[in-house]
């Protein structure tokens, strides 16, 4: 059995771990085996972070480069940084926004523009999401990660109901409505072809 | 039995309470920290837990509990075991009573570490068993068995997960929590617990005589398995074994080593049935060295002939490459794809409002030609600010500093160390520096907590691991007790006063101490402290770049090269003091 491999990338503090936890819980709901691995410790301090989730995985947690079925990027620059993980014909769901890394200012490094970043993602099944605007619509900019998960949800081999049950298991009860709204707004923003 | 989606360290912690652990101690260190963090947060079983001040202290506490008959665990990262190596080596002689597990988490690729050492070497060195799980489920199951194994052989059992076990997740089958509780009783037995020469010579002999029994007990657990499926074979251990399972062809034999020491007869019988054997293990070639002793003409591939990398961590692709080199696979099933070039890096960075950044800025201003030994913690990121010149191991900022000062170097030495690291192994270095008259300044970056590993409390915090209040230690008192006469405390957010104190230290003689005291900005936010944001007056900003060079992630640049401050700002206000044009002020103020 081959797994459906999802690489979630972003910046420490954006909530990649919550997004991967929700996918993992949804696998539990469906009785599907799952393996994952994530960045902890020092790398979380505003650095580039990655979470691997292998839906149906029964062996190791690491997705090999060229092996991801889907990349979920909470930052557009990070989508480009990890693009080589995508399998031929794979999909990318990316936040249409990037935070300029601090070294660009402190070391005066060139920062690629949006057009350049999108050019680097050519040839993929790319879905761009205005996560900040949708999170604001949902009621709080902090739920961008759940907006993005919702946006990717129709591309995952998991039922919408399982993912929503997983959201309920993974977020504080008082924020459930906010998170479900964020999930729906994201889900409606991406329609698979 | 319940199935849950758990982090490796959470599954390991749950296994401890299933096994009836009575005593847990440790010192935080990535990737091991979440074991104690999980144990302290759970409510299923009550027992004694502490974050100790260092690994040697933690080890000896847990060892004593084991001598009193309790099931005990001590947790640390691999380099922490260097600190605890002294009691480890001799506790193999004394043996244990209650099951005693030494969790030492290795970090291949040094994701968050200063080296890639292999804990299994220590198990071999100390002649104690070692468990090396290949998956989160196996880590759970092994930890359930580790305490009983320790009791059976009367030895500490080393448990060696790696980063990709500790921080892996999976759907995990859990067992029931053990409701049995023990109360420690120390039974005096000087011949076991007092290692004077006459006793220890006997204990050494007993340890050696135990080894065949240890090998059998380890084999009986069933974590070492072998299946003959063809004329070639792969032998693997740890997380690498799970990568092998992903790519190994059906007609290739597979031996998995989960526990050490290895039974040589069993391994030799397997090896002799094959013409080619490939050994795949992250870390040191421990299995490979043993296997080569037994190979008797069988062609062996591994780290020692270059088929397998000697450094870093592996992946399914690494394993496939090694199998290809050894002729076991015709070619790798994984496509080669290179990462995009020329992207700006996004390294970890000190948080917006981190007091360490403010202190490093001040140090650099007063000591532009200084030499800056530093230490292990978030503040190692001061490397990006040019204020970290050395790091070796915990506590070595002070001692490398005093060594440089005594070596005849004429540039001023300013060492930096965090509060937790100072309490870990910095105190002795300061005592030594003061007593021997080293001319240097030690800055203790006191953020009141062990921040980098996940905000564990330490004796500066004023609460124990269980959140109970305790008397916060006085760093000033410790430094004065070490003999230092120049001991000043500053608030790094107060740039003017901090600069003045550094200047005073610069002209004073001997070993000076400055305590830069300001709560970790993350911990402060969690406790409800809100300072209000700072903003830039675009009319006053001259686009000089002084604030950008400060390196705060909240500060950026607009299209006209003028500075901007975004919502990451936590209101430390240091940039307002740095700005030469007075263009930065608290929001709502002019």
Would you kindly provide a written description of the structure presented here, covering whatever features stand out?
The complex is a heterodimer of chains A (193) and B (590). Chain A is of the alpha/beta class and 193 residues long. Chain A has a single domain, classed as Pyruvate-ferredoxin oxidoreductase, PFOR, domain III (Pyruvate-ferredoxin Oxidoreductase, domain 3, 3-Layer(aba) Sandwich). In chain A, 39% of the residues lie in helices and 22% in strands. Chain A has eight helices and six strands. Chain A has a six-stranded mixed β-sheet. In chain A, helix 5 crosses helix 6 (144-153), helix 5 crosses helix 8 and helix 6 (144-153) packs across helix 8 (176-189). The longest helix of chain A is centred in the first third of the chain and has 15 residues, at 16-30. The two termini of chain A are 26 Å apart. Chain B contains 22 helices and 22 strands. Helices cover 37% and strands 16% of the residues of chain B. Chain B is globular, with a radius of gyration of 27 Å. In chain B, helix 1 crosses helix 2 and helix 17 (419-435) runs parallel beside helix 18 (475-481). With 590 residues, chain B is an alpha/beta fold. The chains are: A alpha/beta (193), B alpha/beta (590). Chains A and B meet through helix 1, strand 2, helix 2 and helix 3 of A and strand 1, strand 8, helix 11 and strand 20 of B. Strand 2 (34-38) of chain A pairs antiparallel with strand 8 of chain B.
């Amino acid at each position: 059995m081959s797994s459906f491999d999802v690489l979630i990338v972003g910046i420490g503090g954006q909530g990649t771990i919550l997004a991967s936890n929700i996918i993992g819980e949804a696998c539990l709901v469906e009785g599907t085996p799952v393996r994952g691995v994530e960045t902890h410790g020092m790398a979380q301090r505003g650095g580039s972070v990655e979470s691997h989730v292998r839906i149906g995985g029964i062996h190791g947690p690491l997705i090999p480069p060229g092996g991801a079925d889907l990349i979920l990027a909470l930052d557009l620059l990070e989508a480009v940084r990890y693009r080589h993980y995508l399998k031929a014909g794979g999909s990318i769901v990316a936040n249409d926004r990037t935070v300029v890394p601090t070294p660009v200012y402190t070391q005066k490094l060139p920062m690629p523009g949006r057009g350049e970043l999108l050019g680097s993602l050519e040839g993929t099944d790319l879905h761009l999401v205005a996560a900040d605007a949708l999170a604001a619509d949902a009621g709080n900019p902090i739920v961008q990660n759940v907006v993005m998960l919702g946006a990717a949800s129709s591309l995952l081999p998991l039922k919408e109901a399982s993912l929503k049950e997983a959201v309920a298991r993974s977020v504080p009860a008082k924020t459930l409505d906010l998170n479900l709204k964020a999930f729906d707004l994201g889900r409606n923003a991406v329609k698979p072809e | 039995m319940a199935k849950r989606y758990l982090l490796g360290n959470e599954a390991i912690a749950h296994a401890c309470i299933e096994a009836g652990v009575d005593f847990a101690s440790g010192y935080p260190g990535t990737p091991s920290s979440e074991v104690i963090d999980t144990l302290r947060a759970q409510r299923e079983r009550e027992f004694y837990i502490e974050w100790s001040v260092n690994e040697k202290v933690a080890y000896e506490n847990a060892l004593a509990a084991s001598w009193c008959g309790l099931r005990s665990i001590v947790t640390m990262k691999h380099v922490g075991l260097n600190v605890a190596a002294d009691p480890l080596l001799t506790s193999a002689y004394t043996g244990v009573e209650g099951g005693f597990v030494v969790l030492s988490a290795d970090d291949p690729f040094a994701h968050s570490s200063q080296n890639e050492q292999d804990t299994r070497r220590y198990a071999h060195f100390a002649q104690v068993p070692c468990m090396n799980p290949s998956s989160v489920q196996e880590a759970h199951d092994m930890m359930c068995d580790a305490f009983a194994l320790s009791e059976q052989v009367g030895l500490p059992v080393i448990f060696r997960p790696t980063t990709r076990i500790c921080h892996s997740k999976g759907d995990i089958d859990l067992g029931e929590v053990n409701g049995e509780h023990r109360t420690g009783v120390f039974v005096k037995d000087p011949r076991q617990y007092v290692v004077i020469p006459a006793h220890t010579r006997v204990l050494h002999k007993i340890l050696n005589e135990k080894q065949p029994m240890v090998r059998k007990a380890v084999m009986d657990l069933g974590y070492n398995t072998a299946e003959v499926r063809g004329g070639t074979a792969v032998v693997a251990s740890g997380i690498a074994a799970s990568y092998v399972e992903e790519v190994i062809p059906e007609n290739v034999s597979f031996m998995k080593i989960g526990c050490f020491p290895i039974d040589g007869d069993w391994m030799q019988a397997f090896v002799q049935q094959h013409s080619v054997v490939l050994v795949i293990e992250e870390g040191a070639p421990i299995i490979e060295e043993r296997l080569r002793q037994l190979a008797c003409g069988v062609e062996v591939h591994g780290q020692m002939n270059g088929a397998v990398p000697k450094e870093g961590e592996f992946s399914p692709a690494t394993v496939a490459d090694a199998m290809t080199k050894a002729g076991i696979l015709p070619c790798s099933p994984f496509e080669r794809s290179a990462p995009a070039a020329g992207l700006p890096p996004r390294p970890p960075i000190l948080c917006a409002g981190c007091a360490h950044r403010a202190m490093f800025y001040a140090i650099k201003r007063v000591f532009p030609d200084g030499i800056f030994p530093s230490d292990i913690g978030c503040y190692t990121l001061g490397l990006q600010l040019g204020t970290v010149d050395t790091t070796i191991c915990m506590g070595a900022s002070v001692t490398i500093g005093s060594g440089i000062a005594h070596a005849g170097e004429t540039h001023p030495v300013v060492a930096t160390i965090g509060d937790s690291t100072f309490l870990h192994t910095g105190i002795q270095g300061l005592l030594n520096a003061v007593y021997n008259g080293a001319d240097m300044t030690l800055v203790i970056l006191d953020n009141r907590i062990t921040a980098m590993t996940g905000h564990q409390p330490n004796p500066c915090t004023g609460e124990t691991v269980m959140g109970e209040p305790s008397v916060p230690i006085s760093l000033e008192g410790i430094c004065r007790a070490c003999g230092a006469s120049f001991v000043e405390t500053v608030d790094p957010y107060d740039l003017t006063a901090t600069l003045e104190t550094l200047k005073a230290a610069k002209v004073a003689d001997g070993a000076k101490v400055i305590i830069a005291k300001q709560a970790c900005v993350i911990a402060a936010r969690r406790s409800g402290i809100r300072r209000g944001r700072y903003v830039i007056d675009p009319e006053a900003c001259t686009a000089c770049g002084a604030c950008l060079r400060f390196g705060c992630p909240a500060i950026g640049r607009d299209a006209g090269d003028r500075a901007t401050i975004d919502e990451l700002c936590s209101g430390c206000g240091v940039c307002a003091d740095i700005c030469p044009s007075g263009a930065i002020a608290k929001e709502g103020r002019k």
